[in-house]
Design a protein that fits this description.
Largest sheet: 2 strands, antiparallel
Helix content: 40-55%
Shape: globular
Strand content: 5-15%
Number of strands: 4
Distance between the termini: 53 Å
Order of helices and strands: HHEEHHHHEE
Number of helices: 6
Structural class: alpha+beta
Length: 151
């Protein structure tokens, strides 16, 4: 669960963590959608306990500084694993919140894809979505549009 949780939270951490202190920016576009709201709620549940450990706070700061750094994410995963091992009640609460986010379609695990809002793509254009969270190894393949000419 820790790896999927970090992959989900990583894009939001720059908005949620700053210099080891909790910073919640209500106007940040990244937190406006359903995924951002759930990420914020998860972080508010986890961070007060995580920041009690200098290593935990440092791991969160490193992911916030570089959300795509796999080594930083791994360090945060280890800190969360230790935290959850020590606090079973917190682990169960976070698991419940993750399950709710999965049912809402904004949290994916095991290489899944979660998309929030409408997804629009025209042939030859970019993919557009309110929020698009990709975790793990992701490949997106396009299919050329069928010819509109009828023979």
């Amino acid at each position: 669960m820790e790896a999927a949780l970090v992959a989900f939270l990583a894009p939001f951490l720059p908005y949620l963590v700053k210099a080891g202190e909790k910073v919640i920016d209500e106007t940040a576009g990244a937190l406006a959608g359903e995924a951002g709201k759930r990420g914020k709620a998860l972080w508010q549940k986890i961070f007060p306990k995580l920041e009690q450990s200098p290593a935990g706070a440092g791991a969160a700061e490193r992911v916030a500084a570089n959300p795509e750094d796999k080594r930083a994410q791994g360090a945060l995963e280890l800190e969360l694993e230790e935290l959850f091992r020590e606090d079973g009640a917190l682990k169960r609460e976070v698991e419940r919140m993750v399950e709710e986010a999965q049912r809402a379609g904004v949290f994916a695990s095991h290489g899944g894809l979660a998309v929030g809002g409408d997804v629009r793509a025209e042939p030859g254009s970019d993919l557009a979505a309110e929020s698009l969270l990709l975790g793990g190894e992701v490949e997106i393949h396009t299919v050329p549009p069928a010819s509109e000419e009828r023979v």
